[in-house]
Amino acid sequence: MNMRAKEVIFTLAITGVGMLLANLIGFHVSFMESLPGVGVLLVIALLGAGLKAIIPLKLPTVAYCSILGLLAACPISPISQFVIDAAGKINFTAPLTMVGAYAGMSISNQLRTFIRTGWRYIIVAILVMTGTFLASALIGQIVLKLMGTI
Amino acid sequence: MKEKAYAYGSLRERIKTEWIIYLLALVFILIADKIGQIRIPVWKGTFIIFPIFFSLALGLLTGPNVLKILDDKKVKAAGSLVGVAILPFIAKLGINAGAQIKTVLSVGPAILLQEFGNLGTIFLALPVALLLGLKRDGIGAAHSINRETNLALIQDMYGASSPEAQGCLAVYITIGMVGTIYFGFMASVVAALNWFHPYALGMASGVGAGILMSSATATLTQIYPAMAEQISALAAASETVSGIDGIYMAIFIGLPLCNFLYKKLEPKIGRLTKYGRREQA
After folding, report:
1. What residue numbers bound the domain in which B104 lies?
2. Residue B129 within any structural domain of the chain
3. Tens of pLDDT, residue by residue, chain B (281 residues)
């Protein structure tokens, strides 16, 4: 991410507004009720971006955010109950609408290329997604059965 | 020491360029979340269309190909904003995983081993690509789920104008356009077949592409509301592991395997169609 800390904070704040809005419009959760959850998610996101900037490993920022979220919510964390309750107010799909808007814009200049893409590639793309999902589910199923979990 | 290259001279400069992107995104949230979820039963599955799909479709219209509100520079800027906006969602998934840490740890070995399932694309997609007459571009197309890291990897290994990179890019774009809606629908069809435990489906959702994972997970949690917490926790754990190991999987297993299969299969099934027998440039 080629952004200064200030820029990360600002763009994350905008994302926070997007989450508040989506949670209000889509799920009728008031701003005040969403605020602690949005705060928790933004702080973790910011810390994740910070770790990415200072740790010289080739790990994606999402890996840090995911691990930080996990640590904050797992039983050893002193604030786990607060974190879980606050984040629980944010509906699962509420943070995603803004991601979709940006993602749509970011590929909007490929629309013409996509329309010209041959049908062969579209078939292959569908199989790529299906194959990855099915094979992972199959292995997961077998291992879970062998372990006796299911 | 080398000065780090920033996209903009200052925060002010960023806002001056990007304000229209923020504004559009917020307006699209208003529209998309107002429409809300739409469920359409199709055959054994259900198309659950989430607001993310509407905002994505609206976003697509803004670019240089249709409404021309955004120019190429702003389109690129939106791309880097995706990377920021997804972080709070990933944090939320991490929290779900932390809250369900017992479940996650109890199935740890399954999560690690199902990562190899991400190579499943090769056995399904590569033979079909060859049957359809694709050549080296089929390797780029079928080697992985083809997200940003894979695109960078293939361009680095084979060159940006190589057939491998073209194939990879074509699938990258196609998944960007149709992946969000297809992946969730496919997950609902597979769930309806009842072959797999919801835990296995949750793990399978984490393929190393945030938007695909979220679409499948959102759908699965609607189908199995009683296990929603566990499903999203397992999806998050698997997604995190995929994000870390994905590139190594591609380098050390995916691409060598593709090249091996290509050598074996292309002479046999790659020339069945007229398109497959065409002259190579």
Report:
1. 72-269
2. yes
3. 445 678 899 999 999 999 999 999 999 999 999 999 999 988 878 888 899 999 999 999 999 999 999 999 999 999 999 989 999 999 999 999 999 999 999 999 999 999 999 899 999 999 999 999 999 999 999 999 998 889 889 999 999 889 999 999 999 999 999 999 899 999 999 999 999 999 999 999 998 888 899 999 999 999 999 999 999 999 999 998 988 888 889 999 999 999 999 999 999 999 888 888 887 65
> Which sign does the torsion angle of CA B64, B69, B73, B75 carry?
negative
B191: its two tokens = 């769930």
- The closest alpha carbon to B245, from B211, B203, B208, B200, belongs to B208
Tell whether B191 is covered by a domain.
yes
Query: How many other β-carbons are positioned within 10 Å of the β-carbon of residue B117?
Result: 24
Residue with tokens 């944090």: B91
| CB within 8 Å of chain B, chain A residues 68-107 | 68-75, 77, 80, 83-84, 87, 90, 92-107
CA B52/CA B260 separation, integer angstroms:
39
Q: Is B41 helix (H, G, I), strand (E, B) or coil?
A: strand
- CA atoms of B180 and B165, how far apart (whole Å): 23
- End-to-end Cα, chain B, rounded Å: 44
Residue identified by tokens 């083809």 is B146
Quick count: other Cβ atoms within 10 Å of Cβ A33? 15
> Which residues of chain A does B65 touch, with a Cβ-Cβ cutoff of 8 Å?
108-109, 111-112
Both tokens assigned to B66: 């249709």
- Number of domains forming the structure of chain B: 1
